[in-house]
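Task: sequence design from structure.
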C-alpha cells in the first residue's frame, strides 16, 4: 500500500472514529450519561492515534534502516549484499532502485578489475615480446665489439641477424600500435559499397600469387551472385584475410600446403571460408584463439614468431563490419576460419 494511501486512511480513521463514537453515544445514552464515557472515549482516541502513528512509522523506518545499511556498505566499497524490497510502496520501489544501482556498480567494479588485469597482462606480454629480440641484438652487437665476428662471413651473418631481429621488433611494434588503435576505436573506417564477387576475386588473385610463390596450393570457389554487394572497408577486410592466411602459412606442417577460399551467399550475409591443411587447433584451445595474446601451447613452444594479437585484431575488424567470426579445426588435419559480413540491401524508394 502506498504511503499516501496509508496517511489518508490514518487521517480518515482519526476523523471518523471520534465523531462516530460521539454520535453513537449520543444516540444510545442520555446526555448526562455521555459525560461518563468521556474518559473511555479519550483512551480510545489515544490508542487509535498511537496505533496509526506506529503503523505509518513502521512503513518508513524499516526500509529506511535497510537503505542506511546499504548506503554505508556502498560507501565502504562493499557491494556483496542484497537489498530486498518487502513492500510495494514508494520505499519498496526505492529499495529496488538501490538494488539495481548496487548491481550496476558491482558490474562496473568487476569490469574495471578485469580491464586492469588485461592491461597488466598486456604490458607484461609486450615487455616479454620486445625483450627477446633486444637480447639477441645485444648479444650479436657484443659479439662484434668483442671481435668474435672476426671473418667477413661471420660479420655478415651477425649483421643480418641484427637486422632481422630489428625487423621483428618493428613488426611487433606496428602490430601493437594497430591493436591499440583498433581497441580504442582510433582507426577510421572507410566503408564503401562494392561488388562482393569482384572484391573477393581481387583478394583471391593476390592470394594466389603470394601462395604460389611459397609453393602452397590455392583453391578458390566463388558461389556469390553477380549482383551481391557488401559495405566494407576494403583495406581493413584485406587485413582480415591476410591475417588468417598468414596463420595458415605459419602453422603449416605438411610438405604440400593447401589453402582454400570459399565464398557463399547466406541470407543477409556473405560468408567467407578460409581453410588450410595445417596442424590444426586442439578443441580445448579453439574457443580462445580470438582472445588477445592467446597462443596455443603448441605454437608457443614452437619457433614461430607471433604474439597472439592477429586474430583479436581480425575479430574486432569483422565485428566493426557488423559481422561475426568463428573457426572449426581438427588436429593434424587443418583449420577453417569462417566470417560473415553484412550484405548491402537496396531499399526501393517507395518503401
Ligand atoms: N590456421 C591455424 N592453424 C593452427 N593454429 C592456428 C591457426 N590460426 C591460429 N592458430 C592458433 O591460434 C593462436 C592465435 O592466433 P593469432 O593469429 O591471434 O596469434 P599468432 O599467430 O600467434 O600471433 P600474431 O598473429 O600476433 O603474429 C596461434 O598462436 C595458433 O596457436
Ligand atoms: Mg597470427
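Answer:
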Amino acid at each position: 500500500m502506498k504511503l499516501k494511501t496509508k496517511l489518508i486512511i490514518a487521517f480518515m480513521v482519526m476523523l471518523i472514529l471520534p465523531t462516530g463514537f460521539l454520535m453513537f453515544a449520543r444516540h444510545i445514552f442520555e446526555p448526562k450519561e455521555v459525560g461518563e464515557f468521556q474518559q473511555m472515549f479519550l483512551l480510545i482516541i489515544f490508542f487509535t492515534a498511537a496505533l496509526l502513528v506506529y503503523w505509518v512509522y513502521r512503513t518508513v523506518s524499516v526500509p529506511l534502516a535497510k537503505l542506511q545499511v546499504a548506503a554505508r556498505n556502498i560507501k565502504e566499497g562493499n557491494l556483496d549484499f542484497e537489498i530486498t524490497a518487502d513492500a510495494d510502496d514508494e520505499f519498496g520501489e526505492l529499495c529496488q532502485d538501490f538494488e539495481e544501482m548496487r548491481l550496476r556498480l558491482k558490474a562496473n567494479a568487476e569490469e574495471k578489475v578485469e580491464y586492469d588485469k588485461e592491461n597488466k597482462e598486456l604490458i607484461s606480454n609486450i615487455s616479454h615480446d620486445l625483450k627477446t629480440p633486444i637480447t639477441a641484438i645485444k648479444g650479436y652487437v657484443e659479439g662484434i665489439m668483442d671481435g668474435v665476428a672476426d671473418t667477413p662471413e661471420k660479420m655478415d651473418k651477425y649483421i643480418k641477424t641484427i637486422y632481422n631481429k630489428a625487423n621483428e621488433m618493428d613488426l611487433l611494434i606496428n602490430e601493437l600500435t594497430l591493436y591499440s588503435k583498433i581497441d580504442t576505436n582510433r582507426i577510421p573506417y572507410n566503408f564503401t559499397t562494392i561488388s562482393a564477387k569482384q572484391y573477393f576475386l581481387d583478394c583471391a588473385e593476390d592470394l594466389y600469387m603470394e601462395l604460389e610463390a611459397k609453393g602452397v596450393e590455392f583453391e578458390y570457389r566463388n558461389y556469390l551472385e553477380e549482383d551481391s554487394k557488401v559495405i566494407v572497408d576494403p583495406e581493413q577486410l584485406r587485413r582480415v584475410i591476410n591475417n588468417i592466411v598468414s596463420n595458415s602459412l605459419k602453422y603449416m606442417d605438411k610438405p604440400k600446403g593447401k589453402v582454400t577460399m570459399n565464398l557463399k551467399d547466406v541470407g543477409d550475409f556473405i560468408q567467407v571460408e578460409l581453410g588450410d591443411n595445417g596442424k590444426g587447433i586442439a578443441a580445448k584451445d579453439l574457443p580462445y584463439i580470438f582472445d588477445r595474446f592467446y597462443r596455443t601451447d603448441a605454437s608457443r613452444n614452437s619457433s614461430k614468431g607471433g604474439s597472439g594479437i592477429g586474430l583479436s585484431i581480425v575479430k574486432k575488424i569483422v565485428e566493426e563490419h557488423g559481422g561475426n567470426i568463428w573457426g572449426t579445426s581438427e588436429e593434424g588435419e587443418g583449420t577453417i576460419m569462417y566470417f560473415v559480413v553484412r550484405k548491402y540491401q537496396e531499399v526501393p524508394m517507395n518503401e
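The chain has three domains: 3-78, 122-183, 192-342.
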